[in-house]
Amino acid sequence: AKEVMQDVTLALVQALKDSNFATSFAETIKESFLVGLGVSKVLWENGGLRFVNTSSSKTWIDPDYQAGSFQPPKFVIEEKEMDLAELKDMAKNINEESGKNVFNMTEINKIKEDQRDEESALNDRVRKGISQHNKTDKRVKVLEFWGAMIDKKKNTVIKNQLRVVANGKYVIRSQTNPFDHAKAPYLPVVPISYPHRGVWGTSLVEPVVKMQYALNNIINLGIDNLNFSINKMYEYQPSNLVNARTVTQMYPGKMVAKHT
Fold it and tell me: Is-contact 210 55, C-beta < 8 A?
């Protein structure tokens, strides 16, 4: 039994290493300590799990969801940017691996045609002297939605859905949640829960920020008092001096001429 447990432990360690768990989770913990929320995402790539860190500022989680709740959030939306060629390669690989059209290649090709139209219009503006930019950004903004959707026609709720929208208008992926657990593949991490704030918690920096400001003010007051003590103010009568301007620049050992 001990040998079997050792083999299982080694297999688990190797699986976590191959899945990038340590690096991803470390970045998630670091972000959560700084801003109060960190989000890891679990992917399935090349027949195995892979963990990546997603930006909390680009991930929107159901505002009614409370950190630490046993119930999953109603929805999660992630925003990211991808190169058009990278998006096409990813879509083709997933379609080939799954043996079906998971991604809608017809809609993805429309993105390319759309960017060609923008590039043609931009070149036309450059030719007319309206614009000096002659390059078109090939990045594609992708919104990934996981959760329940409302069918307005039937007035019903469709649960466990996955939608991927490119550039705000091309639905390149539409299907039911592919995972057996039927949950969004996001793992939010909150260092300190904050009541009634939704998923966002309190960072480890936030409680000491005001103390740091107070400490800075006290130190600044001490430095100002020291400056006033050393750099004292003096009173003089300009008519008693040969040249009153000489006292505008003072230094140790300087001689100032005055009338007798």
Answer: no
- The tokens for 123 are 């070149």
Q: How far apart are CA 187 and CA 107, in angstroms?
A: 30
Instruction: Count how many Cα atoms sit within 13 Å of the Cα of residue 201 in the half-sphere of its side chain.
Output: 22
Per-residue pLDDT of the chain (260 residues), as tens digits, is 677 788 888 888 888 888 888 889 999 999 999 999 999 999 887 778 889 999 999 999 998 888 777 788 889 999 998 888 889 999 998 898 888 889 999 998 888 756 655 666 666 666 666 665 555 556 788 999 999 988 877 777 888 999 999 988 899 999 999 888 888 999 999 988 888 778 888 888 888 888 889 999 999 999 988 888 887 777 778 888 888 888 878 777 888 888 87
* CB atoms inside a 10 Å sphere around CB 7: 10
Quickly count: other Cβ atoms within 10 Å of residue 186's Cβ. Answer: 18
In contact, 58 and 78? CB cutoff 8 Å: yes
pTM above 0.85, yes or no: no
Separation between Cα atoms, residue 260 and residue 252, nearest integer Å: 23
22: burial class by Cβ within 10 Å (0-12, 13-18, 19+)? exposed
